[in-house]
Amino acid sequence: MSSPTTSPLEVLQRVWGYPAFRGPQETIVQHVISGGSGLVLMPTGGGKSLCYQVPALCRPGLAVVVSPLIALMQDQVEALQQLGVAAAALHSGLEARAVATVWSQLQTGRLTLLYVSPERLLGGDLLERLATLPGPGPLALFAIDEAHCVSQWGHDFRPEYIQLGVLAERFPAVPRLALTATADPRTRAEIVERLQLQHGQVFLASFDRPNIRYVLRNKEQPGRQLQAFLAEHRGEAGIVYARSRSRVDQLARELQAAGFDAVAYHAGLSAEQRSAALQRFRNEAAVVVVATIAFGMGIDKPDVRFVAHVDLPKSLEAYYQETGRAGRDGLPAVAWMLHGPADIPQLRRFIDDSTAPPEQKRIEHGKLEALIAYSEAAGCRRQVLLRHFGEALAEPCYNCDGCLEPKALADLSVPAQKLLSAVVRTGQRFGAAHLVDVLLGGSTDKIRQLGHQQLSVYGIGRELDRSQWRTLVRQLTGLGYLVPVPDGRGGLQLGPQELVRPLLRGETTLALPLGMPQREQRRQGTNRSDGISPGVDDAGADPALLEALKQWRREQAQRQGVPPYVVFHDRTLLELAQRRPASPAELAEIGGIGAAKLERYGAALLTVLQAAESPY
């Protein structure tokens, strides 16, 4: 364990082998080291774990990390132990002897980080034991990972998370850091309230994952389209998401018959089957898991090269979190999705048939409309996605199908003016359905009760049909011309005046595709379905040396019974194959090789590097 005066940058360099912090990491780390609490929103792969792991080594005492899944704890603990950090986990999958070992380490002050589930933390006498630990501190901090699980409006709600507010009452002097990659403003406010973080800081990192290419295709023959996509990614690990268990089983069988190394994963399988699928995915280089969303937060594998959706997910929040499991190592990855009009009524029916209260149903319908707006987006999809999370991307990303494959556009300036005018004339409080009824001259009870048949915009929109108007509403929402009314009831109001006023005055024009995106287009010069060349960014790396390093890593992982990425990430092996260090000092300059790994693997790595002859 480090002393309380240890520099966090020195810890980062010595333990992890990274030369510097990224983004807001250093600010967050310093805040926690000084005793501050807060909420961290950072994209998957953005380095959330370091925000509490580095302070855990800089502050005296034990750091307790609340994590929702055993697999996630297991990955984190194995990775820390490789770095020479005293870490352990308490969960239901441990045998009695292992549990006794952890208790002994706690009682003798030999642990730096302890990972626990919320159920394990709050049940039994663990809180009492933590309050009486020996040694300095005795508690360094509490880290609450996947904090969006606290939200009853979220897709990963865990009731036990709500009870974690007790940590503020039992341990008021211990800093608490809640972390998540997925939280819209409503969820952020709920996390802060339920975990009693009102006096802490909120740290917002960019939601952008620039290494992920977002590609959407019109759903035509989903089985064949998926196989064509996977054929371009043979030899790579990935996840395929489908909506139902039966669909997962069917796709897995079809892919296996077509020669793909695919396994199924869903809640209907036995615990043994799910565990076997997860272990294969963690330990092997090119396994494709076909799954429902049951295959979720426990994914800590950094070299997932693609995430494919054959059905629309339930919301943009779910889509963002699921696609965020690709490319955690920062290397190029693809988020590929099939979508079609048939998906939408089914998703609406799921919401309407649920037992949720009316307020929650309105929220879920609003989230679905945002997802449909994304799927129908004209132009840069990344701009639409980030805008949903309150972040503006000034320029198109040129790394999505919207940027790389421009669709046929129509001048919709006049219909857009009519729609914006209808929003104003009706009082900026109604949703899409009523606005479209007004524009089409409908004769509904609502229109008659409100007298909206007397408005100047009544019946002026008959040049478009109902479906096209709904599409235009979603597109203008995705572009920021319309924004949801904050009360969460589904109404729409005008966006920023500097954006809306020029369009209403006719000073700017608006060209958009009308209706669903056209049939699948191919980017000129390539017939790939994602526009990405196979493999990752290995420019300058000796292929023979890179393969030798991967083989050495596989042998090390098998010997220790851990996934290969726990030994070293692909990014570290790529840098080794590119720079070919020839001494321990040069090895220490490679990202991801800290002091413990240099001591443990340095000599063996130099042997591999010296043995591989470059063909160039």
Question: How would you describe the overall organization of this protein?
Answer:
44% of the residues lie in helices and 12% in strands. The model is unreliable at 515-527 (pLDDT under 50). With 616 residues, the protein is α/β, with parallel strands linked by helices. Helix 19 crosses helix 20 and helix 24 packs across helix 26. The strands form 4 sheets. A 7-stranded parallel β-sheet has the order 3-4-2-5-6-1-7, with helices on both faces. Strand 3, helix 5 (96-107) and strand 4 form a beta-alpha-beta unit. The protein starts with 7 loop residues before the first helix and ends in a 5-residue tail after the last helix. The protein is globular and about 80 Å long.
Task: Considering the chains and any ligands shown, give keywords for the structure.
616 residues; alpha/beta; Rossmann fold; Arc Repressor Mutant, subunit A; 4 domains; seven-stranded parallel sheet; 17 strands; globular
Percentage beta strand: 5-15%
Between the first and last Cα atoms, what is the distance in angstroms? 45 Å
Order of the strands making up the biggest sheet:
3-4-2-5-6-1-7
Provide the low-confidence segments as ranges: 515-527
The coarse overall form would be globular
Output mean pLDDT.
87
CATH overall fold name of the largest domain: Rossmann fold
Whole-number total of structural domains: 4
The level 1 CATH classification of the largest domain is Alpha Beta
Separate helix tally: 28
Structural class: alpha/beta
Helix content: 40-55%
What CATH architecture of the largest domain do you see? 3-Layer(aba) Sandwich
For CATH, the homologous superfamily of the largest domain is named as P-loop containing nucleotide triphosphate hydrolases
Largest sheet: 7 strands, parallel
